[in-house]
Amino acid sequence: MNSKFEKLVQEKLLTQHRELARDSSELSKRLSTLYEGAERGDEAQVVSDASEDVLRYLGTREADELQAIEEALARLQSGSYGRCVRCDGQIAEPRLQAMPATRHCMPCQEFFERQGYRASAAEPVELWG
Fold first, then answer.
1. Burial 2-35, CB ≥16 within 10 A → b, else e
2. Domain segments of the chain: what residues?
């Protein structure tokens, strides 16, 4: 992998990191405003509960994405970027271009998906039922 490609990847990762952090902050502010303005009746409680669930989901997802980006930036620094963290095989450049924070080569990613595991955490996830 050449330094020009790594520089482009680093710029893309930093841009994604800034955007996620900004979006997460904006979402929190909007939901806080919604809570403050809502009347506290049964309907408002349902909306509030639903909004909390959505925020919790989005917050977890965004936190996972931010962590993946930070890990990819660390791999760039250490010189291990572009290597699968599971098998140490080379990750194809087109995959890295499409998903610069990816941790796994396609065979390992497919293995995790077949097994019903999240490749980022190696823990089981429910796959739609």
1. eeeeeeebbebbeebbeebeeebeeeeeebeeee
2. 3-124
Q: Give the separation between CA 107 and CA 84, rounded to whole angstroms.
A: 10
The pLDDT tens digits of the residues spanning 49-103 come to 555 666 566 667 777 888 888 899 999 989 999 999 999 999 999 999 999 999 9
Looking at residue 2, its amino acid is N
Residue 92 φ/ψ, nearest 5 degrees: -60, 140
User: Domain 3-124, what architecture?
Assistant: Up-down Bundle (1.20)
Q: How far is CA 109 from CA 63, 69, 98, in A?
A: 20, 17, 14
Residue 104 DSSP symbol = S
Confidence at residue 50, expressed as pLDDT on a 0 to 100 scale: 57
